[in-house]
Structure formats: structure tokens, C-alpha cells
Amino acid sequence: MARDPEMIQREIEEAREALAGTLDELSERAHPSRFVESGADALRSRLADPRIKYPLIGLGVLVVLVLLRRLFR
Prior knowledge:
Layout: H1 5-29, H2 32-47, H3 50-71
């Protein structure tokens, strides 16, 4: 059974709209700023962990002390 041209045109337009919606969603998911935000959030959460936070603070203090010692020697 043959379909009329108006029905075919409607189907094409519906498919086009669905494809446009899918492309918009994909472009939003793959946007570079989203990756930067998620990486920054992951880094913040890791640095908030006391097992990482306090050794880094200690290392920073040690580096400052070594630099001060070299400056005033």
C-alpha cells in the first residue's frame, strides 16, 4: 500500500526533530567544560580526604622550611 506524500513528509520531519534532539543532548554531554568541571570536582573530593590532605600540608611546610633555611644560610 502506497503512503501519501504528506505522511512521508511528516515522518521525515519527526525523524529530523528526534535527530536534532539527540544531537543536542550529545553535544551537551561531550562539552569540554563538563569534563573540566567533573575533573575539578574529583580533585577537590580527593584533596578533602584527610589521608591525602594532611601529608600534602606537611610536605608544603617542609618545602617552606627548606627554602627559608637556604635563604638565611
